[in-house]
Each structure stands twice: as C-alpha cells, then as structure tokens.
Design goal:
- The complex is a heterodimer of chains A (282) and B (183).
- Chain A has 282 residues and is of the alpha/beta class.
- Helices cover 41% and strands 14% of the residues of chain A.
- In chain A, helix 1 links the parallel strand 1 and strand 2.
- In chain A, helix 9 crosses helix 10 and helix 10 packs across helix 11.
- In chain A, 47% of the residues are buried.
- Chain B has a two-stranded antiparallel sheet.
- Helices cover 64% and strands 3% of the residues of chain B.
- In chain B, 38% of the residues are buried.
- Chain B contains twelve helices and two strands, in the order αααββααααααααα.
- Chain B is an all-alpha fold and 183 residues long.
- The two termini of chain B are 34 Å apart.
- The chains are: A alpha/beta (282), B mainly alpha (183).
Chain lengths: 282, 183
C-alpha cells in the first residue's frame, strides 16, 4: 500500500512520526503553509517558515524516503493582522520554487472583509503562476463558509479542477462535488472526520476527485489516520485499486497540475555513498 | 573546473543564449533545475547547477548573497558550489558560515569544498568536526591533509574518546585521519 498524505503539517511533528509514516507506507506528503499555535506578528517570521518548508523539511523527510512538497500562502487567520499583510508581497518568489505545488492554505477563518480580499488576491496568484489552489474551509459556520468559498472560487475564474476544497464533511461535500472542485477530507481522532464516516462518504459518492488527509499538526491529530482510513476501506469491501486511487493517484493527479510534482526515488540513507546521516543536533 | 568548462559542457545552448541576454536572472536561477534538468553533465555538476553557476558569473557579491538567501536548498547548494569559480575573492565567506550553521549535510559538505580556503582555521576545524559528527565522508573536505593540524587532532581525539565511552565508534575515515595526525 502506498500513501500520499496531501495535507500534513510536518513542521509540528517529530522524526518519530516520519519513521512511523514510512513504516506504514507513506511515501509522499504535501505540507501546506498555515498558522502555528502562536500568532506571528511580522513578515520575517513567515519568510523563515516558508524557507523551512522548501529547505529543512524536505531534507528531513528524505531521511525517511518520503517526498515532501509544500503549498505557500498567507493563511486567512493571520491575514487579519495588518502587520502580516506584507507577506503577500513575499509570495511570488516562493510560488516559483521547485518544491511548491500549490497556493495554500487560503480561504476563510472568520469570513471578515480582509479575508475576502486576501483570498481573492491569492486565487489570482494561483492563476498567474498556473498553480492549483488548496482552500481551507472554516471550522465555525462551515456550511455558510463553504458556500461563500465556492462563490469566490467561481468569481476568480480559476478552473474548478485546479481547486481542492478541504476539511469537508457530510454536510458540505455535496456543494463541492457539484462545483467540480476536488474534495478533501481531514481524518482526525475526535473532530473533523473519522475513518468509518469517511468510508460511508466514499460508498455514497464514489472515489472521483476525493482526497483523504491527516492534516496532522500541533493539535490533537494523528499522521497515521490516512493509513487507518485505507484499512477501513479494505475492511468495507473496497478494492486495493480503490484505495490506491484515493490515497495515491488522486493526490498525484491534483498536485501534478503544478508541473512540479517530483516523485522520483528519494534517498533513504541520503547522499553520501550510503553513509547514514540519521542524526540531528550537531 | 571553471565557468568556461561548465559553459562548454551544458548541452542546452538555447538556454545559455537566453541567460546571456537576460537583464533579470532571478526567475532563470529559480527555474534552472526544471529547465535544464538534474543529470550530471560534468564531474560533480548537474546541468541545473552548471546553469546556476553561469548565471552567478556576472553578479555582484550582494546579488549572489540575495540569490543564496532567497534560495531553496538546491539553489543554496548551487551557489556554494559555484563560489570558488566566481571572481569575488573572499566576499562569499558569510554564505559558508550560514551553510555551516544548517543541519543539511549537503550544504555543510559544500561549505568545506575548495572555497573553504577563505575560512579561518577555527571555523574550518569546527566544520570538519561537524561533518564527522554528521557522518559525512571526509573525502568531501578540500585540502584536508594540508590543513589538518594539532588542534584538529585534539578535537578528533576527544570525539573518539567520547564515542568509545558510549560504546560507539568514530567513522573509519576520521579514525584514520586521527591516526595520521597522532603518528
């Protein structure tokens, strides 16, 4: 079983997580830029964070044979802080990097007027840089937020097939399926979605344009819930080909639209004639 | 290796022409791996790295610094590899110091290549011990035998003792170097 986790915040995870993910078949991840537990207050903090997403983090992932790509954006929550607004000016240089396969996470948090503006501006960047967009849907007032999200996507002129609308559930999936956008589901220990509920959605909706992720971050989350969902699919009678489609081919197809997804062999034991570099803290 | 050798070796002459005519090179620099590929075209040089080195050829130390600072890991590596080929004397030393602070073995090793002749002895010794610690082969270090001194021997000796106390061994190449220095 090969797993592509299309949404996971590895910055907040340990190397033990990478080892466990690799042992369970996770071979590729996409790490979207998002907020951290502590709000940032200046663009420099974002530049260092973005640099880590295209520097240190892919290197760390490669130690475990995992391909790491990123999506880059100013997230909606921090967009509301005027001190962070100049982050928008940093984005073009990052969106051109080899490891950046989408603009994201963009979308709504509180659905403020500032969020409207920043969301639209970043959808325009996605069109300009010919990149797909990863769109977060809000946790509060989700149904209204998802509807408004789809309106803004439509207005922007971006192809629906270039948009992945994430953190969906039973209530919001129908709207997104009808829009032609890709549907993302985050499987969480308590909140968002669970493996059995995900299986029910797949039974009802099929496997087209559906992506499953762990969205694991600094909160209560589990990077192996992609694997648990794959196992729940098999237990419910889905074929290994169905599992491969949802947990590998769909995310590959979505992010490959960037023209930059590189899934070539990773060096498990890294670069120097087989000499192990699995150590840190030097 | 010289910039002329790399220019000669680079198969994509169309790209070279566009690079020569470019007034602004940031985009070409960022996209070099995608446009030129990652195949080796000269010993130790991929096409993308060669292209990046050639783009750096006409840049001031400040511009080189900016491309490095704004680069992803592959761009930073290409800058570090290009430094000894560029007419910038020791102006690139701050980039080596940055690379030596990272935990990326590729960058740390590249910082100890030919351009490391501009590093002072104390910094160079710390770099050498760091790559021994990281498990990178000492073959990556330029001028190792010429520069290795009694103080480096002392540092290797303490690392070897520490490893022995923990029931672990220092790498064979570092042990061999220590033996040579203590002989």
């Amino acid at each position: 079983m090969r797993i592509f986790d299309p949404h996971i915040h590895m910055t907040s995870r340990t190397t033990d997580d990478y080892a466990a993910m690799a042992a369970h078949g996770v071979k590729a991840v996409v790490e979207p830029a998002f907020w951290l537990g502590q709000p940032r207050t200046n663009p420099g903090s974002f530049a260092d964070y973005f640099d880590s997403l295209i520097g240190w983090e892919p290197f760390r992932a490669a130690q475990y044979g995992i391909r790491h790509h990123a999506t880059i954006a100013l997230n909606p929550k921090e967009a509301n802080d005027p001190r962070c607004r100049p982050v928008l000016d940093l984005l073009p240089r990052y969106l051109d990097k080899d490891g950046v396969v989408a603009v994201g996470e963009i979308g709504y948090d509180s659905m403020s007027p500032v969020e409207d503006e920043v969301f639209a501006a970043q959808l325009a960047l996605a069109v300009e840089f010919e990149l797909p967009a990863l769109v977060h849907t809000p946790h509060r007032d989700k149904a209204a937020g998802t509807k408004r999200t789809l309106d803004v996507v439509k207005e922007s002129g971006i192809e629906p097939g270039h948009v992945l609308v994430d953190h969906l559930n039973e209530v919001t999936v129908g709207l997104v399926q009808d829009s032609g956008c890709w549907m993302g589901f985050s499987i969480y220990p308590d909140t968002k979605m669970s493996p059995p509920r995900m299986v029910d959605i797949l039974k009802e909706r099929g496997t087209e344009r559906i992506l499953v992720n762990s969205a694991a971050d600094w909160g209560k989350s589990d990077p192996l819930l992609t694997v648990a969902t794959a196992e729940a699919m098999l237990a419910a009678g889905f074929t290994t080909d169905d599992v491969d489609k949802v947990l590998w081919r769909n995310p590959v197809e979505f992010y490959a639209q960037s023209g930059k997804l590189d899934l070539g062999e990773t060096t498990t034991d890294a670069t120097f004639e087989g000499s192990s570099i699995l150590r840190g803290g030097s | 290796m010289t910039l002329d050798d790399l220019r000669e070796a680079l198969p994509d002459k169309e790209w070279l022409k566009s690079a020569q005519n470019a007034t602004e090179i940031t985009r070409l620099f960022t996209r070099a791996d995608r446009q030129l590929g990652r195949d080796e075209i000269a010993p130790g040089w991929t096409a993308g790295q060669a292209g990046r080195a050639l783009l750096l050829g006409g840049q001031s130390p400040e511009q080189i610094r900016e491309l490095y600072d704004h680069g992803d890991a592959a761009e930073k590596l290409a800058v570090l590899k290009a430094l000894p080929l560029l007419p910038i004397k020791d102006a690139g030393v701050p980039l080596l110091l940055d690379a030596l602070r990272t935990n990326d073995t590729r960058l740390v090793a590249a910082a100890l290549g030919p351009y490391a002749r501009h590093l002072d002895a104390a910094t160079w010794r710390q770099g050498v011990i760091k790559i021994v610690f990281m498990g990178v082969p000492l073959a990556e270090v330029e001028d190792l035998d010429e520069r290795a001194d009694a103080e480096l021997a002392q540092m290797l000796r303490s690392l070897a003792d520490e490893r022995a106390a923990a029931g672990r061994e220092m790498s064979a190449d570092a042990t061999a170097l220590l033996n040579r220095l203590e002989a």
